[in-house]
Design brief:
With about 220 residues, the chain is α+β, with helices and mostly antiparallel strands. About 45% of the residues lie in helices and about 15% in strands. The protein has helices spanning about 10-20, 25-35, 45-55, 55-60, 65-70, 75-100, 105-115, 155-165, 185-200; strands spanning about 125-130, 135-145, 170-175, 205-210, 215. A five-stranded mixed β-sheet has the order 2-1-3-4-5, sandwiched between helices. The longest helix is centred in the middle third of the chain and has 23 residues, at about 75-100. The chain starts with 11 loop residues before the first helix and ends in a 7-residue tail after the last strand. About 25% of the residues are buried.
Amino acid sequence: MPITDWPADERPRERLLKLGPAALSDAELLAIFLRTGIAGKSAVDLARELLQEFGSLSALLKADHQRFVKSAGLGTAKYTQIQAVLELARRHFEECLKREDALTSPELTRQYLSNWLKGKPYEVFVGLFLDNQHRVIRAEELFRGTIDGASVYPREVVKQALAENAAAMIFAHNHPSGICEPSEADRMLTQRLKQALGLVDIRVLDHFIIGDGLPYSFAERGLL
C-alpha cells in the first residue's frame, strides 16, 4: 500500500509536522528524504531495507559515492542531496557557534565537530579560532592525514592563530577506526600545541577526538 493511502496519523510527513522530527524513527526520517519507494515497496519499506543493508543510519550517511549508488532506490542525485544536507548542518552549527561562547556551549561544539568530522575515511585535524569571549572567529581544516605521519606543525598553527588575532583555540580530529581514545601521538601533539601557543598567550581550551559515540575531550579528562 502506498504511503498516501495510509491513515494520516501514520504517515511520516504528517507525524513530523504534528510531533516534531525527534519523534520519528530513522526509517521514517529516511523515507521523507527518499520521497518515493520502488516497485512493490513504499518509501518506508525501502528505508528499512536500506538501514538493514548498511547496518545503521550513520553508515549510510558516510558511505562513499561508489558504495551508495549500488543500492536500490539510491543514485547520484540522492548522494549529492545527502552531502548537501550534511554540509548545511555543519554550516548551521558553525553559525550558531559564532554567536555563542564555545566554552558554555559544549554540546553545540560537540555537535558541530561531530557533524564535520564523523565518518570521514581519513584523519582530518581542525581548529576553532576563538576571540577573547570564546566566540568562534573561524573554523578551518588545518591538516589532513595521519598524526603519526607528523602532518601537524605547531609553528604553522601559531602563525595562523596570530593572523586570526585569536585569544584561544579548540582542536579536534577524527579517528576513522571509530575509537575515541587518544594515542600517545595525540597526547604529545596536544602538549606541543599548548606549549607553542602559550608562548604567544593563546590558550588551548580543548582537543576533541571524534569517533563513534561521544567525542573524547582532553579538557574533561584533565589532560590540558
